[in-house]
Design goal:
mainly alpha; Helix Hairpins; 2 domains; 4 strands; 74% helix; 5% strand
């Protein structure tokens, strides 16, 4: 920054920057919570899709279990027929008893497979209901997202040009402010609830925090010979007349 720039000019540049960024804030306020709502819906949809994929995988696993158990049952039935045929040609009781145990074992295998098939079928029914519920919820979320996105895009479209122009204007003003002051401005603005880092004296009080400003301090602010901040809220103070100057 040039040494020729006066404190008043610095204050005017800060005020101009505050005016521009406040207009940008208004545009963001107009968008409201829509960007966050869109992000939340996108996260919900991603989570639901993962849940649906998992349920579908579980259904396929159960279907594969049923198919496997049916094959095992057929094999057991074939073995039972084979063992019964062999029983007709045994030479002694020992062979007959051995084949009987094999028949009994395969019968138990069939019962076990039938049990596993019923369990898998029940799991498929439960998972199918879960899948339907999740799919309906996903459809609702997608419709909500489409609506919110459309609303946001409309607002962005209406304000995009204005916001771009304001941001370019803000960048131009920032070049007229020394780095130390610009850093202070951004720090104060970030901590201020309403985004105001530069405020004026209104009715003998700070228009940022509404605390009374002593007469001598008001005089110093009007003189504009040094940067003065509110002792209560830390905002940069300017003469109210500055806000109506060209």
């Amino acid at each position: 920054m040039s040494a020729e720039i006066t404190v008043k000019e610095k204050l005017k540049a800060l005020y101009d920057l505050q005016t521009v960024v406040s207009e940008i804030d208004k545009i963001k306020t107009l968008r409201g919570e829509l960007p966050l709502e869109v992000q939340d819906l996108e996260d919900d949809i991603a989570g639901l899709q993962t849940r649906i994929d998992n349920i579908q995988a579980e259904i396929k696993d159960n279907e594969a279990e049923i198919a496997k158990r049916k094959v095992e049952m057929d094999n057991s039935k074939t073995l039972i027929e084979k063992y019964k045929e062999q029983q007709e040609n045994v030479r002694n009781n020992r062979e007959f008893d051995f084949l009987s145990k094999e028949v009994e074992f395969q019968g138990l295998e069939i019962e076990l497979s039938e049990k596993r098939i019923k369990e898998a079928q029940l799991a498929i029914r439960v998972k199918t209901e879960e899948l339907q519920t999740a799919a309906e919820l996903l459809d609702e979320r997608n419709k909500d997202l489409e609506s919110k996105k459309s609303e946001l895009e409309e607002i962005v479209s209406e304000t995009k040009s204005d916001e771009e122009n304001l941001r370019e204007r803000a960048k131009e003003i920032e070049t007229r402010i020394e780095p130390r002051l610009l850093t202070a401005f951004k720090r104060i603005r970030k901590s201020a609830r309403n985004g105001l880092a530069v405020v004026s004296v209104q009715r003998d009080a700070c228009s940022g925090c509404f605390n009374k400003i002593p007469p001598q301090r008001q005089m110093d602010i009007r003189m504009g010979k040094k940067i003065i901040v509110c002792e209560y809220c830390g905002r940069i103070m300017i003469d109210p007349e500055m806000s109506i100057e060209d």
